[in-house]
Amino acid sequence: MKKAENIIVGIAVGDLNGIGCEVILKTFEDTRMLELCTPVLFANVKVISFIKKSMQSELPLHGIDRLDQLIVGKVNVLNVWKESVDIQFGQLNDQVGSYAIKSFVAATEALKNDAIDALVTAPINKYSIQSEDFSFPGHTDYLDQQLEGNALMLMVHDRLRVGLLTDHVPVNEVSQHLTRERVQQKIRTVYETLKQDFRINRPKIAVLGLNPHAGDNGVIGKEDQEILKPEIQKLFDQGILVFGPYSADGFFGSGQHEKFDAVIASYHDQGLIPFKTLSFGSGVNYTAGLHKIRTSPDHGTAFEIAGKNQADATSFKEAVYLALDIYKARHEYKEWSKNPLKIKEKQLESKKGH
User: Fold this and answer.
1) What are phi and psi of 160, to 5 degrees?
2) Hey, is 337 helix, strand or coil?
3) Exposed, middle or buried, 34 (CB in 10 Å: 0-12/13-18/19+)?
4) What span, in angstroms and rounded, lies between the C-alpha atoms of 347 and 1?
5) How far apart are CA 212 and CA 205, in angstroms?
6) What share of the chain is helix, strand, coil (3-state, %, to 5)?
7) What is the largest CA-CA distance in the chain?
8) Which one, out of 1, 168, 177, 186, has a CA that is 20 to 30 A from the CA of 151?
9) Cα(272)–Cα(240) distance, rounded to whole angstroms?
10) Residues 310, 21 contacting (CB under 8 angstroms)
11) What span, in angstroms and rounded, lies between the C-alpha atoms of 207 and 164?
12) pTM, whole model, 2 decimals?
């Protein structure tokens, strides 16, 4: 396992007209961060220097043309492109959006090739990134295609973890995507990531119903009774501690989420509205289910405050912290897997704790 200070964190800079670069630079102005990891921004050093100057930041940057030139403990900027970019903060611009994708694609390639240890992505604008070469609705869908595994959006804030059965799907299509196979796959993915990435030996998982009152025994929709409930029971019978479907309306307000290690929502807003309400702008989006590590802040490009030096970097900093924690957890898990006795000891410790 690498020493903590040698963990290489690749950073896709996101939409240059948004707050992405601002929160990146603010994160690493805290020099203690450079004791934990070595960041590499996939961009262009002149462009990042322009944004740095607009913020009146004094953070030193180290421009490189190849990853083998990076300096540990410095903020490295890999020149993914050479040309200048016309940055106009707060403006939606397809050309600027194309540079967000150049950064992201290059960083993903480095992640695939083990040239970086983890990837943290700054926010993109989903409209400005669309092109003939990139027709994905967001980061997660592209990563799912490029990397091994089954990508799942898992929102994380301290002990609150919220996953999704369906993510960027129009509401009127959610029920079509809620298949038995998907329910099985997503629950298993959350179960495995809780063990491997969050050091939880016997995770407890709650699943929220699709319909109001979880369908009221089929009175308000059939999906909860005919799809969710049977699949949850199958997995429970196989030893996975998964429960539900629960009525979503009062689940978080009553504090039920605190009894579980993760909650799986049936669709995007059902999970993200309570998550963002409870996490107060310091949550992290983690792409579970892959053999590589990717995190991002839980906010968007925030065009309305871009260029005004008003952005809060808390969520981005937390995304870096989580990437480092998961990197270490995975290495520990591999070590335990080589020695079944260590796993048994860990389980016994866990039982004593309860």
Assistant:
1) -85, 120
2) helix
3) middle
4) 23
5) 20
6) 45, 20, 35
7) 63
8) 1
9) 24
10) no
11) 9
12) 0.90
